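Blackboard transcription, Thursday session:
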Amino acid sequence: MAATMQDVAQRAGVSIKTVSNVVNGYPYIRESTRQRVLDAIQALDYQVNAAARNLRTGRTGIIALALPELSLPYFAELADAVIESADEQGLTVIIEQHGGRRERELDVLSGVRRHLTDGLIYSPLALGEGDEARLDVDFPLVLLGERIFHDPVDHVTMDNVEAARAATAYLLGLGRRRIAVIGVHPGEVVGSAGLRLEGHLAALAEAGVAPDDALLGAAGLWHRATGAEAMAAMLDKGVRPDAVFGLNDALALGAMHELQLRGMRIPEDVAVIGFDDIDEGAYANPGLTTVDPGRGQIARTAVEMLATRISSRGAAAPHRVVADYTIVVRGSTEAGHDRPA
Amino acid sequence: MAATMQDVAQRAGVSIKTVSNVVNGYPYIRESTRQRVLDAIQALDYQVNAAARNLRTGRTGIIALALPELSLPYFAELADAVIESADEQGLTVIIEQHGGRRERELDVLSGVRRHLTDGLIYSPLALGEGDEARLDVDFPLVLLGERIFHDPVDHVTMDNVEAARAATAYLLGLGRRRIAVIGVHPGEVVGSAGLRLEGHLAALAEAGVAPDDALLGAAGLWHRATGAEAMAAMLDKGVRPDAVFGLNDALALGAMHELQLRGMRIPEDVAVIGFDDIDEGAYANPGLTTVDPGRGQIARTAVEMLATRISSRGAAAPHRVVADYTIVVRGSTEAGHDRPA
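(Written on the board underneath:)
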């Protein structure tokens, strides 16, 4: 049978209260007493009951991160960054994948799973404007991404329009004029696809370059395979871009693979830029130029905001933080850039 | 205030028992009654209380997957495959990342987190032989990976030695003789690094090729960056391999990037093979030849074994399943292989 706190107290010859103080890291305990309790804990293989310990604070020390899909490297690396930031705050993270399915996304917000966690960092895909009421929950919540605009809760986001505008402006600055966009969601206005396309078109307009629908490659899912397929479909129609803007890195890498299979030289014939700055892009051949949307900053900010909410429930008005972006130049747009001088 | 089951019953004009039957999917309910209850649920925005529903079965419908690191694409894609298989079984997955740290790995096995889940699929890195007693837990558990050999619990694994032997034998069959191994853990016997090196050395011995320590590139972590660094260190010493076996795909991709930066042609000058068959490898330039360790089979088998354990606790003796591997040939070892004929 499992040892109880009472067993530990008895063996150490101290009160239960003293055992509790040791277990909870209470500072004012004589070192010899502390050592006796720790010896008894070890001898009895006593498992600290976190649930009981948490009765004191009403907290579990666990937060949840709900995201679309771990097979998208952006989200896998975001999860890693969130776990690292949470670790610095003494918080443990569990991850829930909702697959961008509306029903699953709603499950994340209600239901038994929220009982265990102190708060939620939530990156929805299917929920959007009009779902604000769903976010009126009775637990600490920080929102990630673009999907909901009139924020009733803390929200960490990136400036998709401005960052995409900068990506296209950069390609235009290299003298490229026929810029294919891979990953378009026709008709979408909000959401990353719609916002990034808006930024792209704004940059074209500023430079006086006429947009061309033949250069818009649709791809519903933003994976390597769909990027390669969209690129292939465009090339098969005889369209010949001199640059490609993949709306995320996976799309860009898929497109770059397809271009190279057809004997096109990157960047001489076609310059390629992505969006996300996933680790994989740095090791592609050539290295993938990309927009770094500030993933580390997003993760760190979200965890800090959530930790603040947890320790002061419902105190302050919702915050909105927009992460800084940067363009990371590599060999896929400028030859020779992969090896630092 | 949130609607209760009683509110739903009142509005639908049925008993609470009938509402409960509808919510729990009980089959023998008149369709018109079922529809009335569903209408009432919708009208009142009634949230089914999963905790209450689960009192009936004593289950939550949630399983946990504990793994080292999501920034390793193998584990991100494994997680995705487990979630997909669990979905088919009507199970939801939450993910816990332990980072290969012993203390965290032990936390996964005990503690508050296990209260919420029906069972655990567990891929440890730090625990190993001698820790079998830790696996004697009172919840359904399926083990993944190589770390513990005398299995007290269900275990799904791959044949690392045999699969690595096949990888090296394949390179030898192409006429390569100076095969660098990237990702070696000096002194390790158990664990993926030790087992895969053992397979590599067995293949050399079978072919009568003398091993050369200068061709063993150490890398503690199996990331792209460490693969590139190990490759660079070897090349800087003047070692000139005609093939590279990356002990996982990330290492192989990092090594391939470094080789190409230095102007070496893949596969003409150096053939490269990895291990894992992550999606990224298929879109590398050239595509990465690799060992597919049967990730889909591993995920499916683990979920099925866990589901069986959950529905028949403690019934059967532990099973051990070894997944089938295959070698996936792409352009990094045989030119022209990236485009199907």
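Lecturer's comment: The CA atoms of residues 163 and 208 of chain B lie 19 Å apart.
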